[in-house]
Amino acid sequence: MNILVLGGTRYFGIHLVNDLLAMGHNVTIATRGQTPDTFGDQVTRIHVDRNDLKAMKQAFQGSTYDIVYDNIAYCSNDVKNILNFVHCNRYILTSTVSVYKENDMNMRECYFDSDKYRLLMGNRDDFDYGEGKRQAESVLTQVYAFQKAAIVRFPFVFGEDDYTKRLYYYVEHIVQGKPMYIDNLDAEFPLISSKDAGGFLAFLSNKRLNEVIQTASPETLTLQEVIGYVETKTGKKAILTECDDKAPLNGFTSFSINCDKAKKKGYKCQSLKQWLYPLLDTYIEEAKK
């Protein structure tokens, strides 16, 4: 298949592109050209800013793709600027469980209905992260209802390639003896590895799925478990105080997501034992340097 990927040069987008190539697809990556990639001559590259409407028209005029993956749509205008200029048989929007306004355990896809949500056209700066993603989903299902599309909601995505360093923050502070303020030690979170996130998206290339779907590792995790593991591995104790150095996951309360749809489609994410603890080991070694 002829596939376009927006957001394919870092994080789970790299895993998506590599998996699509391994499956034999022809892959084009659309990028502003600011982040180098290692795909060599295996991919076609289009350098374009999705907010430059004239450039978008020039770049994609007359092009049709079997699938467009959009990993970097953060608002309604982001989706509009793609679907007004890029023709595709199927559009796969990467979204987030942050669209759910209230955390709960075993949350299902139906907990947020973008068909009925109040649509507001706007740019990224007009919304916070969760609201921007709600608007991205809403413009897709309301304005572009004719477009065959899937919406993929991920929980926290972690991996060695996580440029946000959210999980590394906790490891680094313990290893280097830095105090930190954490307000949710016992809150449960669903997670997915960056490799599984990319792998699941690629898996959907051969599935006729035109609905909302979400997936995650089968277990939840608490920060207390992370700290306990790092303390045991390093022999160092976390310094927990009410200081100004606030941890990146502060404010989140316990939640989990129901992944029955993904399981029925035949995809099973790695367990935390398979990927999270090896990742923590890597972070420990990095923090020692």
Automatic annotation (TrEMBL):
GO terms for molecular function: UDP-glucose 4-epimerase activity. One of its GO terms (cellular component) is cytosol. Its EC number is 5.1.3.2. Pathway: Carbohydrate metabolism; galactose metabolism. Its cofactor is NAD(+). Signal peptide: none annotated. It catalyses: UDP-alpha-D-glucose = UDP-alpha-D-galactose. The keyword Plastid does not apply. One of its GO terms (biological process) is galactose metabolic process. Keywords: Carbohydrate metabolism, Galactose metabolism, Isomerase, NAD. Residues 3-203 form the NAD-dependent epimerase/dehydratase domain. Belongs to the NAD(P)-dependent epimerase/dehydratase family. This is UDP-glucose 4-epimerase. The lineage of its organism: Bacteria, Bacillati, Bacillota, Erysipelotrichia, Erysipelotrichales.
